[in-house]
Specification:
Blueprint (H helix, E strand, L loop, with lengths): L15 E7 L8 E6 L4 E7 L3 H7 L4 H5 L2 E7 L1 H8 L2 H23 L3 E5 L3 H7 L8 E9 L2 H6 L1
Antiparallel strand pairs: 1-2, 1-4, 2-3, 4-6, 5-6
């Protein structure tokens, strides 16, 4: 996450916030997390196995449930629009896309896979509540080696 969290050189402040559903990551308990970019720390939100929920949130695509970690970039769009005007919507998505691209590069550098996924907006926001209150999902990236691929090797 650290390699994919540096704010791009841009004329807008950081707008997106990374939330994670950890399914199978060495050294991390399964559950949901918020990643604090400035300190590089993971804040545990909920413990437990959320594979089924992750798969559902990703428009019921199997990769959401099968991945090692699902990264969800979210932003408080109302606050951003109030501060930056109409361009905030574009800027928030651009920033999330750049961070997601960095996740892809970091995953591939570590011999893992990554893919962007579509999602249910309202259900995703509700899933990460109350921590993500007022935030809207922008992008989801599934990272890791799928269980089915791992079992074949």
């Amino acid at each position: 996450m650290a390699a994919s969290s540096r704010h791009p050189r841009a004329d807008f402040p950081s707008l997106s916030h990374p939330y994670l559903i950890v399914n199978a990551v060495d050294g991390m308990e399964p559950g949901t997390y918020y990643y604090r970019r400035q300190s590089g720390e993971f804040e545990m939100l909920k413990t437990g196995n959320f594979r089924r929920e992750a798969g559902y949130l990703c428009l019921e695509q199997p990769l959401g449930a099968d991945c090692s970690v699902l990264v969800c970039y979210m932003a408080d769009l109302e606050r951003a629009l109030g501060a930056l005007g109409n361009r905030a919507y574009r800027d928030a998505h651009l920033e999330a896309g750049l961070h997601g691209g960095q996740v892809y590069l970091a995953a591939y550098a570590m011999g893992r896979g990554a893919t962007g996924l579509t999602f249910y907006d309202d259900e995703t926001a509700a899933f990460f509540a109350p921590h993500a209150a007022g935030k809207s999902p922008l992008l989801m990236v599934a990272v890791g080696v799928s269980r089915s691929s791992d079992e074949e090797t």
